[in-house]
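$ ./design --mode recover --in tokens.txt
reading tokens...
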């Protein structure tokens, strides 16, 4: 069997789908154009799926009722409607699950959902690779059948073996790594790293073994080589993510997003599907760029994150709460008075706001302050929350004006001239220890300079908890800090009432 061919109109359709995906990424680069970007993504994916279904309609031979050789003209391919129905049923089931999940998922669980989706992409890549290896002729990656004892043996093209090996390896790493990320984000595993002795040597040995086996697979397509590549890749995906601590999880999510894209691209070559190649390359490259940007935002190298990042040294710092350190407690009325008398208030949201789902009442508070002549701005740290853009999405959901939202590098210089910094659930990204304490696991990470404001109002459930990096925040005990201990949403609601 020769390689599968694609008609010119199908190639054109895939090209249009690819352009839509590029426009989708461009639209998603800004909250103001994100809805348009999503629409382009939906259109592109619809075109790609429909084109694939039309060009790959399953067929079977009709058969000849008059016997072999007597009516060859009747022995023609016909549509296999049973298989078509099975495919459409699978698509419908997947669409229903996706629709229900999208409607019911809370924004606080979005990082877990993203990690779960990445695991499915990785598993799909592995399953496609397995199917292609077991039946290469059906995928058009083999045209030579060598007779073997008991059954014929299809020889896979050397280039296709490289594609298969890489696709299965990247997909398996994405799957097992995403499962661990999901468990960590969902609280089923602790945020602290699990440090294996000699983990770096183990990881290097496994990576070298996988690459060596893929190279050997080009000359020998024995089953033991293929399955060993898959198993070792599953193992190293687990080992790579387990030692990474909680504070690095946004980068991990972005990194796994990149992996899933490259896995899809590799399988696109196996399937001879240009849409998958384009889409996978876009996802892979954009995820890699985002991971690099986030690593720069944390003053970390990508290699240091993979090697364990913040979590690897979490225990060397004074994790947990400080004992017998004085701190000041305030009330909703105190906060309302201070902010109503201010010229400028900078609001710093974090994961605590997401957990309490306080974004809507927070926007209401900001509107009331604006009505009293107070300048209100929102400061977003690149890794606030549990995934890239987490806080931006929440604020956009609450209809906070885009012009009021600023990134760290654009607003950090303003804290020194700000009357009140209002921190709602953002712990690690406001911790001054990142600038002063070399023994801290977050040392070197750029943080928001909230301590430079005249007054810091910090909403926190209690003084007993620490941030996701597992370290206490010295900001709590500063002379200019007032702690507002309560559920974030309830406290902001009380502040809104006090502003009336």
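writing sequence...
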């Amino acid at each position: 069997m020769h390689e599968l061919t694609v008609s010119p109109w199908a190639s054109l359709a895939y090209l249009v789908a690819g352009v839509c995906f590029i426009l989708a990424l461009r639209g998603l680069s800004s909250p103001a154009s994100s809805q348009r970007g999503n629409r382009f993504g939906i259109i592109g994916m619809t075109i790609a799926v429909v084109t694939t279904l039309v060009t790959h309609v399953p067929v079977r031979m009709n058969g000849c009722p008059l016997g072999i050789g007597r009516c060859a003209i009747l022995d023609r391919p016909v549509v296999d409607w049973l298989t078509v129905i099975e495919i459409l049923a699978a698509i419908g089931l997947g669409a229903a699950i996706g629709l229900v999940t999208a409607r019911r998922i809370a924004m606080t669980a979005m990082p877990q959902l993203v990690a779960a989706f990445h695991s499915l992409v990785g598993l799909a890549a592995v399953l496609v690779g397995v199917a292609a290896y077991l039946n290469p002729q059906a995928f058009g990656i083999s045209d030579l059948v060598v007779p073997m004892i008991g059954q014929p043996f299809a020889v896979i093209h050397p280039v296709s073996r490289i594609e298969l090996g890489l696709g299965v390896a990247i997909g398996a790493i994405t799957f097992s790594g995403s499962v661990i990320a999901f468990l960590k984000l969902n609280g089923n595993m602790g945020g602290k790293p699990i440090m294996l002795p000699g983990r770096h040597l183990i990881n290097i040995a496994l990576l070298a073994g996988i690459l060596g086996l893929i190279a050997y697979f080009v000359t020998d397509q024995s089953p033991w080589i293929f399955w060993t590549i898959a198993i070792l890749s599953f193992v190293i995906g687990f080992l790579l993510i387990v030692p990474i601590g909680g504070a690095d999880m946004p980068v991990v999510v972005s990194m796994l997003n990149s992996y899933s894209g490259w896995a899809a691209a590799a399988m696109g070559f196996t399937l001879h599907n240009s849409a998958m190649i384009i889409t996978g390359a876009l996802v892979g490259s954009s995820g890699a760029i985002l991971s690099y940007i986030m690593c720069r935002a944390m003053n970390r190298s990508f290699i240091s994150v993979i090697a364990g990042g913040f979590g690897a040294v979490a225990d060397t710092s004074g994790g947990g709460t400080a004992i017998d350190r004085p701190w000041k407690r305030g009330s909703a009325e105190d906060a309302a008075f201070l902010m109503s008398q201010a010229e400028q208030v900078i609001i710093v949201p974090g994961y605590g706001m997401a957990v309490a789902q306080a974004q809507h009442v927070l926007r209401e508070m900001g509107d009331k302050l604006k009505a009293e002549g107070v300048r209100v701005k929102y400061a977003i740290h690149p890794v606030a929350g549990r995934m890239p853009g987490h806080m931006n999405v929440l604020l956009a959901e609450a209809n906070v004006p885009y012009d009021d939202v600023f990134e760290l590098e654009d607003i950090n210089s303003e804290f020194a001239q700000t009357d009140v910094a209002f921190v709602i659930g953002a712990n690690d990204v406001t911790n001054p220890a990142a600038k002063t304490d070399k023994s801290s696991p977050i040392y070197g990470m750029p943080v928001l300079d909230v301590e430079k404001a005249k007054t810091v109002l910090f909403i926190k459930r209690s003084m007993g908890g620490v941030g996701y990096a597992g370290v206490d925040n010295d900001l709590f005990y500063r002379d200019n800090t007032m702690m507002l201990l309560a559920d974030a949403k309830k406290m902001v609601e009380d502040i809104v009432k006090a502003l009336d």
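exit 0
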